[in-house]
Each structure stands twice: as structure tokens, then as C-alpha cells.
Amino acid sequence: MTWLRSFPQRYPWFWRNAPYAVMAGIILAFVLLAALPQGVCLGDCGARDKWCNANCTVACQSGTVLKKVDGCHWSDAIGACADEVKNEAVACAHSSDCNVTSGSRLHYQGGYSYWWVGACKREPGVPQQCDFVLTAGNNARVDCCGNGGGGGGGCTPDYAPPVIHAKDAAFSPPYPLTLGQDPDRLGVAVTVTAEGGKDKNNCGGAKPKITDFKVTGIDLAESSRNWILTDLAAWYPGATILGDYPMLPDQSSLQGKNTSKATLWFHFNPLDPGFYKVTVVATQDKGSQKSSTAVITVPVYLIETTTIR
Predict the structure, then answer these.
(1) Structural domain that includes position 266
(2) Are residues 93 and 208 in the same domain?
(3) In whole numbers, what is the pLDDT of the chain averaged over residues?
(4) Which residues contact 18 (CB under 8 A, 6 or more apart)?
């Protein structure tokens, strides 16, 4: 009897197309999940994570660390005021969301926390004296979201150029002599360091690496040239400039390349007394201005006199 036929016999079109319908349903489900990211939550993720991202794909951190300017000093190496930066932890423990709740240089606006951004500037009318100045309207939002870039709400680091510590350069021997008057013919060796520039946006980014650090020229100061040809020539008739300038070191080496702090060592043989102006250039791997130039002054003496110009 026809009414006793099985389901596949009564509806053959459905039986033939059922596998395709199931596959289409699975594909449609994946498409909907991709279009609706909140679907991956499979439930309410709570007010704290929703504060970071309404679709629950970003989690709040328990805390964050920011870099703040703690003081300022005059730097001969860069010829300007330099920041003294240190890390400061801020609390992210609000009961209902992940907003920052404390910090020594935080202010609040529109329900969010902001970090004051300032800089070291020279005091007006006082040479080589510096002070920290807050810049009105210049601040960065701080939160504790999981992708906050070190707590800066998506902060992008802006790196200063590398710093060359020219004023701390060391000489060996400490009081070098001209090669012609040095019984040991030591010449002079110089050691100087450079380090990657600071993160001016306080984003907590890794410090830049020094990729190159070298001497680009050694010259005798104009004042020393004049002194040799006038005063020294009056004491020692026939005194003249013996060296050929500018020149380069006869030896050099770099330690710490591709790290945040590198040390340059170089040697040269001075033929004339006076002040040698050595130009060095350091290059780092990050920042809009990746190179810095500094001049190291190296004094070279005569045995008969300790006065040079």
C-alpha cells in the first residue's frame, strides 16, 4: 500500500539534496560568525573587558607601567636640555571597568585618564639651566586594555635621535703628547659611548639599537693652527703645521653593535700640538631622525709646555 512507503520513498527530492543542505548550513554559520565578532564570546564577558572593546575581543590588564620625565639636565653631548626618565606603575583596579585609577601625573577628562606630556626646556635667560615644562593640551590617553601599547591606548613610539656621550669620552694616555716628542710613540686612543634615543611619547617601546658608530673626520682646531704659526713659531723658529687635515683614525673598533648601547674605540697619531676636533656619527634602527653627530675635543701637548690653544 502506498501509505506504508518510507520517508525516502515518499520524498526522494529531499533525500537526494539533504547532504548539500547540511553543508550550506555549516558554511552560512561560519560566515555569520566571521561577520559578528561578538559571536566568539559565547556569552557576556563582563563590564571590565567591554570597557576595552565592546565585542569582548580585548581583555583588560591588571596594571601598566609608563615612562615619565623625572628631571632635567643640560647635556653637552646634544647641546640642549635632556630628560631624565623613569618608569612609574599606575593602578588599573576600578571595580567596574579597566580605567586607570592612580598615577602622579594623571588627570581625568570625559571619563578617561590622561597622562601629562611635557619636555625639558632651557630656562629663559639662564644658559645651560633646564626645567620640566608641561605642554598645555598635549597629553595621551592611558588605559589598561590588553592591546594598549604599554598602557598608552594604542600609543605609537616616537624615538629621539641617538645620544653620544662626547663629554664623557676617555683618553689614553690621559695627557697625550705629539708623536715626535713622545719617547714611547703611543699616540692617543679615545673611547666614547652612544645609546639609542628615548621614546618621546612614553609608549614603553623597546630602546633603539645602535647600528653604526664611527669617526668621520679628525681636524686640528683653527685656534691651534694660528697658535702654532704665531706664538709657538716665535718661541721655536721654524715651527709649522706638520699634519695633513682632515684625517681618519689608523685603528678603530665598535663593541655593542645592534644593542641599545655601543662603545667606539679609535686611535690616531697626532703630529701637532693643540686641540683636535674629532667628529663622530651614531646611527640607530628606529626613529624619524636616526643619526646624531657630535664633536669630541682631544688635547695634545708638548713636553716643554702645558699651554695649548
Answers:
(1) 163-300
(2) no
(3) 77
(4) none
